[in-house]
Amino acid sequence: MIGYVEGETLVHRLDPRTKLFVQAALAVAAFAHTTPRGLLVLSTAVLGICRLSATPVARSLRSYRAFLPFLLAGPLIEGATLGAPWFVPADAATPALASYRVLLLLLVSTAYLRTTRVRESRAAIQRLLPGRAGVVLGAGVGFVLRFLPLLRHDLATIRAAMDARLGSERSLYERVRLIGVTGLRRVLARADRFALALQARCFAWNPTLPRLDPTWRDAPAVAAGVALLVWAVG
Amino acid sequence: MTITVADVTYRYNGDGTDADAATAALNGVSLTVDDGDVLVLAGPNGSGKTTLVRLCNGLLTPDAGEVRVNGTPVDDAPVAARSSVGMVFQDPRDGFVAATVGADVAFGPENLGLAHDEIDRRVDDALAAVRMDGRATDRIDELSGGERERVAIAGALAMDPDHLVLDEPFTGLDWDARRSVLNRLDHLRHRGVSVVIVTHDLRDLAVLADRTVALADGRVALDVADPSPEALTDLGVRPP
Amino acid sequence: MSTPTDSVELVGDEVTGNVARAVLFAAATSATAPVDMVHPLAPNVPITLQTLWVYLAGVVLGPVWAGVAFVLYLLAGLLGLPVFAGGNAGLGVLLGPTGGFLFGFPLAAMTVGAIAHGTGGLTAPDAVSIPRLVVALLAGTAVVYAAGAAGYSLVQAIGPVAAVSAVVLPFLPVAGLKVAATVAIVRSDALIAR
Q1: Interface of C with A in 50-109 (CB under 8 A)
Q2: A40, A93, C2, C111: most buried, per Cβ within 10 A?
Q3: Alpha carbon distances (Å) from A90 to A37, A78, A94
Q4: Which of A59, A150, A186, A55 is nearest to A111 (CA)?
């Protein structure tokens, strides 16, 4: 699983908003220039980012191996023909480039996740999104972070209880139904108690926002992001 | 600094939000909580204890009667009422808003719009008051039951309340955890915070409590400094 | 009491309740992501119950807050919470081959909610008629798979027919099963007194 890794790299010290922006700019550029030359330029950029953020390339890519069938299926399906010559490499080229683009974007987002705490990302969202949407979504991401382990635990106990009562012999339909009924009951009960706690703690539309302190270091990164966008559009 | 409950009546199905079984009806209840009081609110399940405390900070609205916090009707100033009456819910697990201790305790002061320095100061103070100083980066999921209860108390304290209400704070706590929570409550009352403990189990609360109020069927059945064991047993409360 | 409280704008009770439910649905969907079941007939097709929560959110929360729940889910994943299938996260996954399904979640949840509840405010979930519920869930399913196929086609630069055969057809039998289970769940006592 990819997550934050303690560190002091240049990328760690960037403002999360800068990192989100560069990431987005890179994605736009990658979709605009899915050509051998375009991807070569982007590969250089991505490898540079990995370097600056101490992101191990091979190990990171291995963690996404679940995507491999999807990435291979594209070129194989498009390149295959029903008779001789059975496979036309030229037809497979475009999907293959697209698969490569996916790998580049996975690497960039890995670099972001390894260098940015969820808390910082949340602060960025709360400041980037205006008004009430920013409050609901920014605070909401923090709340999801809080409840994720609780609900994992709930679902694990539900499944264990089900298995204990000859669950493995029940039909798939019956298992899905049982998980849903029990899970929904817990979700709604937790939501009721959580809502009450939010009210008691004065959940407000205008809270003090978390601190974010952009520095001069962000300037070159923002400039690089702008350059990528200009290249993508031009 | 007082909470004044005057002749309050509360019924089911007022606005559709009270289908919760925890909020039983109340019938003409009056009660005053003064500065630094430690009040034990007892009574069997369904007697209306939880309803009563939720009326004190505007989480519920009475059908008749009035609740005032520090002289102001709760409905007129909900923010003042909610920050002045800190609330710690039964099994606080669903009441935490953040994954780590410090971030959770900061939530109340952030909502009050305080400056960062003031928020930091309050978080430090609140954690120190419950002997959880230096634990701000701990994950809430990895705390023991007693530590969790104390962090929940710190979350309420960070709003700088005059009153602290705890709903069944000892459920599921072992003896040591229970003692550590009691010890912190005693410390708070010496800082002038009044404490209301809602419970159906009075063991070892006698030393701490200035008064014991017992509810039965939505009415105040008892309001005395030193309840006799017989009177409590008759009301379905386990005596100390 | 030293705290100034006049400037605090409290979030209203109703919105607070909806935020809490949206959060819990997003978290439940995330918690379901890493646990896969295996289909007895097609052991190589993983079954995640994430779409179950998409359906339930639409029916229980209605179109607006079900949409919020899944926007929140996507955002949590974008920012690094391990909420996507396999415990993954990040922009690379959202823009990856299965990203279309993920973007389909909020759209589908809103579709289910809009059809189940209509335009005249929310109906009690267990009061939505069965035919209406089934239509809502089938429409939601269509949205998820259409978005999934469109995303795959776009991201992998392959034709729509190839995309549908790769990412839709293998999953359809299980999709039907989840729709049926959702109907049963909505009609169960999990929703009583709410």
Answers
A1: 52, 56, 60, 68, 71-73, 75-76, 79-83, 85-93, 95-98
A2: C111
A3: 17, 9, 8
A4: A55
User: Coil, helix or strand for C13?
Assistant: helix
Determine the angle formed by the axes of helices A218-233 and A16-32, rounding to 10 degrees.
20
Chains in contact with A, where contact requires at least 3 CB pairs less than 8 Å apart = B, C
pLDDT, tens digit only, all 234 positions of chain A: 678 999 999 999 999 999 999 999 999 999 999 999 999 999 999 999 999 999 999 999 999 988 888 888 888 888 888 888 888 888 889 999 999 999 999 999 999 999 999 989 999 999 999 889 999 999 999 999 999 999 999 988 988 888 787 656 678 888 889 889 999 999 999 999 999 999 999 999 999 988 888 899 999 999 999 999 999 997
Residue A199 at interface with chain B, using a CB cutoff of 8 Å:
yes
Please tell me the distance from the alpha carbon of residue B52 to that of residue B16, in angstroms, as a whole number: 18
How many C-beta neighbours within 10 Å does residue A53 have?
Answer: 22
Domains and CATH numbers, chain B: 3-96+147-234 (3.40.50.300)
C141: domain CATH number? 1.10.1760.20
In a domain, C103, yes or no: yes
The ipTM of this complex is 0.93
Residue type for position A134: G
Chain A residue with Cα closest to C83: A148
How far is A98 from chain B, CA to nearest CA, in Å? 38
Q: Given CB atoms, is A146 within the 8 Å cutoff of chain B?
A: yes
- DSSP code per residue over A104-122: HHHHHHHHHHHH--HHHHH
Nearest to A202 among B82, B89, B99 (CB): B82
Residue C89 belongs to domain spanning? 17-187
A129 touches chain C (CB under 8 A): no
Q: What would the pLDDT profile of A98-140 be if each residue is shown by its tens digit? A: 999 999 999 999 999 999 999 899 999 999 998 899 999 999 9
Residue C155 falls inside a structural domain: yes
Does some domain include residue C2?
A: no
Write the residue in C1, C6, C8 that is nearest to B84 by C-beta: C1
Phi, psi of B165 (to 5 degrees): -115, 125
C8 within a domain of the structure (yes/no)? no
Low-confidence residues of chain B: pLDDT under 70: 12-23, 204, 239-240
In total, how many domains does chain C have? 1
